[in-house]
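subagent[fold] <- orchestrator: predict structure for attached chain, return tokens only, no commentary.
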Amino acid sequence: MNTQIQVNGASTEVIMVYPSMAIANEFIRLSNFTVSPMKLQKLMYYAHGWCLRLTENALIDDSFEAWQYGPVVDSVYHAFKRFGNRHVTMMAKDYEGRPFGIDADDAPTLALLQKIFDTYGPIDAITLSQKTHQQGSPWDYVFNNIGPGNVITNAIIKEKFIP
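subagent[fold] -> orchestrator:
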């Protein structure tokens, strides 16, 4: 089923769920390899949150957890943690050494990710992290009521997402 969504006036259809590494790689590509691991996590969170809020469908096939500096996908953290607060200079690859990616024919998802990058990309990682910590946000709810490190379920993101 194709779902129409509006992101700041841009209409797109999100057609499929992707591995978290594919979404990460697309944001790395869009940033021209100038995104830090922390900012990458926040861009992924906002893309996933917009999809859940507007379509009730997930964008990625993984879960976000409530870590100290905001929502984090554990597998993406481990793939890129070696970069610390520096720019990520490589893409995540599968077991055969091929970069994960978005289907080139999936224009709706690519358009959504471009719109998220255009909207949140200019914002620095610390500000994005602080934004995810707003009172009443999914991160705030899980971190302060369930506990640090716990999964921020898609149901909680749908209910409490703050763009």
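orchestrator: received. Logging for downstream: Residues 3-160 form one domain. The chain has one domain: 3-160.
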